[in-house]
Specification:
By secondary structure, this protein is an alpha/beta fold. The chain folds into 2 domains: 172 residues, 3-Layer(aba) Sandwich (Rossmann fold), CATH 3.40.50; 92 residues, 2-Layer Sandwich (Pantoate--beta-alanine Ligase, Chain: A,domain 2). Helix content is 39%, strand content 19%. It contains 9 helices and 9 strands. Strands 1-4-3-2-5-6 form a 6-stranded parallel β-sheet, sandwiched between helices. Helix 6 packs across helix 7 and helix 8 runs antiparallel to helix 9. The radius of gyration is 19 Å and the shape is globular. It starts with 8 loop residues before the first strand and ends with a strand. The structure holds pantoate.
C-alpha cells in the first residue's frame, strides 16, 4: 500500500532510508530513531518527543516483525492502523517514517539470527522461546539500515532494553541507546498497543498488574521474603481475574538475574494474561 503525506517523508526501501540519512549526516545533522511496530500510543509519543530533543532529524519505523511472534501468538491481529499512525507522526513533528514491507526486511533465503544468549532465556524468554531472537535480529537490522546516532526505547519493555544494550555493545554498533520511562494511564496501566484487545472488564483487571508490582516493591523494601512475596502476588493476580500469570520476579536490573535480596539496582517484573492478551510491566524497587 502507498501512503502519501505532505510533511512526513515516507520511505520503504533500505536504499531510500540510507540516502536520506547520509545526506542529513553530511549536513552534520544528528539522527534520532524510534523503532516501533505501529499501533502508536502515548508511550510511543514520549519516545518521539525524546527523539526531537536529542536529534535534528527524527525517524520512526513501523514494521510488525513476524520473527518476534510465536506460532500461537497475535501476529495476524496485531494492531495495524497506518493512517492513524501517520497522522500522529505528522502531528508530532516526525521527519521520516521508515515503513518497509516484509519482503524487504526478510527477503527469500534470509537466514541470519541474532541471539543474545543469557538475556533471551530469562523472564519473558522462558515463556516466549523465540521472541527475543526475533527482537534482536530486527533491531540489529534496523540499526544497520538506518545508522542513527541515537535509538530510543521505552522502559516498559525493560528486558528488550537490556537485550538491545547488550547487542549494541557486543556488536560495536555505533549508536547511543536512550531509554525513556514507562507512560501510564491514570490508573497505572502502562500504555501498550495490546491494550486495545482488552474489554472494559479486562482493562480494569489489567490495571492491577501495576498495583501488584507496587505492592511487591513495598513489601520487599520492608525486608519480606522475596520468593513468598512473589508467590502471593501471583495468587493475588489470579484472584483479581487474570487468566494466568507467567511470572512475578525480582531481578537485578542489569543482568536480569533473579535475586533473593534487594541490591542497588533492583526491579520487579511481571507478565500475565487476560484471555489471550499478554500484559507486561516492571518497576524499580
Ligand atoms: O518494542 C517494539 O515495538 C518492538 O519490539 C521493536 C523494538 C520495534 C522491534 O520490533
Amino acid at each position: 500500500m502507498t501512503f502519501i503525506s505532505h510533511c512526513l517523508d515516507i520511505v520503504s526501501s533500505v536504499n531510500e532510508i540510507r540516502d536520506k540519512v547520509l545526506s542529513a549526516k553530511k549536513k552534520n545533522k544528528k539522527i534520532a530513531f524510534v523503532p516501533t511496530m505501529g499501533g502508536l500510543h502515548k508511550g510511543h509519543l514520549s519516545l518521539i518527543r525524546k527523539s526531537k530533543l536529542v536529534g535534528d532529524v527524527s525517524i520512526v519505523s513501523i514494521f510488525v516483525n513476524p520473527m518476534q511472534f510465536g506460532p500461537a501468538e497475535d501476529y495476524s491481529v496485531y494492531p495495524r492502523e497506518e493512517e492513524k499512525d501517520i497522522k500522529l507522526l505528522e502531528d508530532n513533528g516526525v521527519n521520516i517514517l521508515y515503513f518497509p514491507d516484509k519482503d524487504s526486511i526478510y527477503p527469500k533465503n534470509f537466514q541470519t539470527e541474532v541471539s543474545v544468549k543469557k538475556i533471551e532465556n530469562t523472564l519473558c524468554g522462558k515463556f516466549r522461546p523465540s521472541h527475543f531472537k526475533g527482537v534482536a535480529t530486527i533491531v540489529t537490522k534496523l540499526l544497520i539500515q538506518v545508522m542513527p546516532d541515537y535509538a530510543i526505547f521505552g522502559e516498559k519493555d525493560y528486558q528488550q532494553l537490556v537485550l538491545i544494550n547488550q547487542l549494541v555493545s557486543d556488536l560495536n554498533i555505533p549508536v547511543k541507546v536512550i531509554s525513556c520511562p514507562t507512560i501510564r494511564e491514570d490508573d497505572g496501566l502502562a500504555f501498550s498497543s495490546r491494550n486495545t484487545f482488552l474489554s472494559e472488564d479486562g482493562r480494569y483487571i489489567a490495571s492491577n498488574l501495576y498495583s501488584e508490582l507496587l505492592n511487591v516493591a513495598d513489601l520487599v523494601r520492608r525486608g519480606g521474603n522475596i520468593s513468598n512475596i512473589c508467590e502471593k502476588a501471583v495468587q493475588n493476580l489470579l484472584d483479581i481475574g487474570f487468566s494466568s500469570v507467567d511470572y512475578i520476579e525480582v531481578c537485578d536490573a542489569i543482568s536480569l538475574k533473579k535475586l533473593d535480596k534487594i541490591e542497588d539496582n533492583t526491579r520487579v517484573f511481571g507478565a500475565a494474561y487476560i484471555g489471550n492478551t499478554r500484559i507486561i510491566d516492571n518497576i524499580i524497587i
